[in-house]
Write a structure and sequence with these properties.
- Helix content is about 65%, strand content about 5%.
- The protein is mostly helical.
- The chain has one domain.
- Strands 1-2 form a two-stranded antiparallel sheet.
- α1 packs across α2 and α1 runs antiparallel to α3.
- It is elongated.
Length: about 90
């Protein structure tokens, strides 16, 4: 479980960077990252708007940042529970 949460956070960071640098989805790997991370960020969509600066193509995805924070908290809590249960 910890590995999956770490992987999810890593993929979300990659998505954030790709969107920040306005990388299009014409590349198969980039399209795959966008597809997988869309699933991960869907529960948080609509809470914050994504920021777009005028005359600048990149997007600052606040939804993705929120998802990263929430998954990091879940990761932390699960780790604490596991350590506490081990004694």
């Amino acid at each position: 479980m910890n590995g999956l949460l770490a992987l999810a956070q890593g993929l979300l960071w990659v998505r954030f960077a790709l969107k920040l640098f306005a990388v299009g989805s014409s590349n198969a790997l980039v399209a795959w990252v966008y597809k997988i991370t869309k699933i991960l960020r869907t529960p948080f969509e609509g809470i914050f708007p994504d920021l777009m600066i005028r005359n600048w193509a990149p997007v600052i995805e606040l939804t993705t940042l929120l998802a990263i924070v929430v998954y990091a908290l879940i990761h932390f809590i699960i780790g604490r529970v596991i350590r506490a249960s081990e004694g």
